[in-house]
Write a structure and sequence with these properties.
This protein has about 425 residues and is an alpha+beta fold. Helices cover about 50% and strands about 10% of the residues. It contains 17 helices and seven strands.
Length: about 425
Amino acid sequence: MIGESLLYLFIVISIPYIIFDPDLEYINKNQIFTNTVLSLRFFAFSKSIIPPSVYQETSCPFETYPPLTFPKVGPDYRPIYHSFAHQYLDEESSIAKITPQMHANIDTLIKEAKMSLPVYPANISYEQSLSFARAVLPQIDCLLIRHGFVYPGHGGVAVLSDGLAPTIYTNQKMFEELAVNPSNVRRIQYIKHNKSHAFYVVDCDIGSDLFLAIGEQLRYPLHMVTAPGHAFIRWEADSQNTLDFETTMGYYRYWNGTYFTDNSLISEWHLPKQLVGVNRYLESLSENDRNAQHYSAIALAALNERNKRVLDDSLRHINRHDTSFSYDRLYLAEYYLFGPASTRSTIKALRYASEAYQTLPVRANAEILACAYAGNGDFAKAVALEKKTLSNAYKRPDEITPDHIAMFQSHAQCENELKLMDASDFRFTAL
């Protein structure tokens, strides 16, 4: 309760500080209000979950830790380290422009981390392991902040290469949206003092990838963990003693026992127990699971580009790594509903949407299935599913989903409602 109250207080105090800061000329008060409300709504679902004695925000004071820059490299640069992050960049070349500088940026982060952080020692107790984690994770967080990694003011980040491409905000309004995002509270000083410099925009899963890439080289027992629409990292001292770290907000919490024996994390996400483990939710992802998640991100980027070839290739990779994920069916359903007119097929969309909803009966999947019913002219089923899922289907605490009942009752079909993550939403001038 104390930890949560401190977080609320930190956000509330920071907003007036931003509003009346003379360095910020234009203030989008609606954006401030929206970001703050969504953040507080999210954390309202966490009340009494984080034990006060182990809650701690990371600290990276600007005065003590000045900003860092990435050394520039030429076109012939070759990666120094063998890292899954380098592999991910190579795999994203089908959907994004990958530059030698992106590989060099990963190498720089790893090199600087290895110079300042110890390798994970062998044969230590779980108490020592958790203490070790509490010492090193904030330092990794500070390293990323000093290099200009921020959370987007608006828009999204689809793949790792999006987060490793530099972004310069030339639009004052967009820059200030970056500064007022509550997720950037601990990054405000770096944002203000580096307005003319490059930022690197990441979200929860891409930020987690960077932690994991560094941890991989130092043999840290880190894993990615996902919940619907979110990701964070978990330090596993052993199977029964873990520490979860939020790469977005920069805090950690832990307890003895995983979610199998402690329901705190399930309660925090209001996740029905039957959904725990579906799509690997709240489980520590294996390397195989993480690769499947990575290809799902590429598939989403391909869907955004309406690139069926890359979409199909990514979905094959997802199934090669793990057939239990629902992403492949959902993305195919969306493609056949909202893709190029020449490739649309409401019959195929209905098939894949039905399979996605059966695998993961959540509100977002139900929306696509209802749209598929409407696309096939079965408006009664669309209305029935809407009524059913509005009342009892799971959705994230911060998720806002539309009510299409009136639309379906008037026999109207869904428009292109893909809520896709496009890096161009936030990148205005790339170096």
